[in-house]
Structure formats: structure tokens, C-alpha cells
Design brief:
Blueprint (H helix, E strand, L loop, with lengths): L1 E5 L15 H11 L3 E5 L8 H12 L2 E4 L6 H7 L3 E3 L4 H10 L3 H9 L5 E4 L1 H4 L28 E3 L15 H11 L4 E4 L4 E6 L2 E6 L5 E5 L2 E6 L12 E2 L1
Parallel strand pairs: 1-5, 2-3, 2-4, 4-5, 6-7, 9-12
Antiparallel strand pairs: 1-8, 7-10, 8-9, 10-11
Helix pairs in contact: 3-5
């Protein structure tokens, strides 16, 4: 299994989509001799699906086709060399994955056929067991929480621990601590902008374009910042480096 779980699509001032992870993605594409990818763009609400596909094709140097053109979305996944899941609204994305019957086809493609999965922001969220740790608003009345479960822990993309002057609501740390208090058996990995988790086979690696760490939230355990995945070794079934 190969997963690239990115916190976000672009860094501030960066023109190229997925530019901060481009070297890692191109290395994987070359190693696996990938020539095309299927984009799942359902998280996009105010952006054009085909334009997103073009942007990704420019970054990755391969043919990228949006799944909304497929007569059978499930068959498109069954034939895919690589799966790209865009950021946007996580609630919309997860609902559409269920409505289009794509949960099991994606799971089988990634786990059985070893198709690489690249997801950022919302696409990162849906790779986890559920979307309960997304930052997005539930913009649709029908809500589905279970997601793909490709990665065993919850992730909070776009994590920020800055204190905004005048903001009187709960901080992100407080919200994640609340999640763990309600769900004491679960853990949350908080990924800052410009960072990613890479699962390759049975290995797990962490990368940050800004040389920043990630945090792990667990009930009853002091939250700390880490710069490598050794802290996740007791929590995930991968060899951490």
C-alpha cells in the first residue's frame, strides 16, 4: 500500500499545486512507471473539476482525468494507475464517495492492487477511519461519518496552534482534546501546512517543507511535537522511521 496524505495543496505564495511535495510524488511516479491518474474532485464546490485535473497534470507530468467524466466511476477506479483526491469540503467529498459507490472500489484498489493514493486536505481526511476531525462545515443535510479507513488514525489537516487576537472560541488544541476526551481510545495526528505522511509498504515517513513537526493528541497523554514518526510506532501497524 502506498499513501501520500498531505495537509494541504499549496504553500503560501506557491503557484504549483502539490509543489512542496513534487519531488516525492515524481519519484514515486517514476519508480512505479505511472502514466495516468484518476482525480476525484468531489470536494470542490467553487472550483472547476477539469481545471484541477489540468493543474495536477502539469505538476505530475502524467495524464490526469476527472472521474466525473466516467460512465462508471467504480470502473474508472478499477482501471486507475493512481488515485488523486482533491482538497475542498470534506463533508461533500465523503458523501459523494458513498453515493457514487466508491468506498469499496478505492479500498480494493489501494489494498489489493497497490494503487497509489494521493490525498490532500479533504482527500487526506477521507483516508482515515472517519471525517470527525475535519475543520470543514457540514454543508449538506445528509451526513456520513465513516470514511475509507486506509490510515488507522484520525488526522487533522491544516493544523494551527497560533492564538488569534480577539478570538474567544476554543483553540484547535482544545477542540482536538475534546475529541479525544469523548473518544478516549482514539488518537489524532495534527498536520501543519506543508507536511505529509507517506506510507510505502509497511513503512511510514513524515516530511515537512517548513521543517516543522506534527502533534499527536491522545486522551490522558501530554500533547507533544514530533519531527519523525517514531512517536506513532505504538499506534500504527507500519514500521516508523
Amino acid at each position: 500500500m502506498e499513501l501520500f496524505l498531505l495537509s494541504n495543496g499549496k504553500l503560501s505564495g506557491e503557484a504549483e499545486l502539490l509543489g512542496y511535495a513534487k519531488s516525492q510524488l515524481l519519484a514515486m511516479i517514476e519508480r512505479r512507471k505511472i502514466t495516468s491518474a484518476v482525480l476525484i474532485p468531489y470536494a470542490l464546490i467553487r472550483s472547476d473539476y477539469d481545471q484541477r485535473a489540468q493543474d495536477l497534470a502539469q505538476t505530475l507530468g502524467i495524464k490526469v482525468t476527472s472521474i466525473h467524466h466516467a460512465e462508471s466511476p467504480a470502473e474508472a477506479i478499477a482501471q486507475a494507475e493512481c488515485i488523486l483526491i482533491s482538497g475542498g469540503n470534506t463533508w461533500m467529498l465523503n458523501q459523494m464517495l458513498h453515493e457514487k459507490g466508491l468506498i469499496v472500489p478505492i479500498q480494493r484498489a489501494v489494498r489489493e492492487r497497490q494503487v497509489p493514493y494521493i490525498g490532500w486536505s479533504a482527500g487526506c481526511n477521507v483516508a482515515t477511519p472517519s471525517i470527525r476531525t475535519t475543520n470543514d462545515m457540514p454543508v449538506r443535510n445528509s451526513v456520513v461519518l465513516p470514511a475509507l479507513g486506509l490510515f488507522p488514525l484520525q488526522i487533522n489537516p491544516h493544523y494551527i496552534d497560533a492564538h488569534i487576537s480577539g478570538h474567544m472560541g476554543e483553540t484547535r488544541d482544545e477542540r482536538l482534546a475534546e475529541f479525544c476526551a469523548v473518544n478516549p481510545s482514539e488518537s489524532v495526528v495534527a498536520l501543519r501546512e506543508g507536511s505529509l505522511l507517506h506510507v510505502s509498504g509497511n513503512e511510514l515517513h513524515y516530511f515537512s517543507a517548513k521543517q516543522q513537526g506534527f502533534k499527536v493528541f491522545r486522551h490522558g497523554v501530554e500533547t507533544q511535537e514530533y519531527h519523525d514518526t517514531l512517536a506513532l510506532r505504538p499506534l500504527v501497524p507500519f514500521t516508523c522511521h
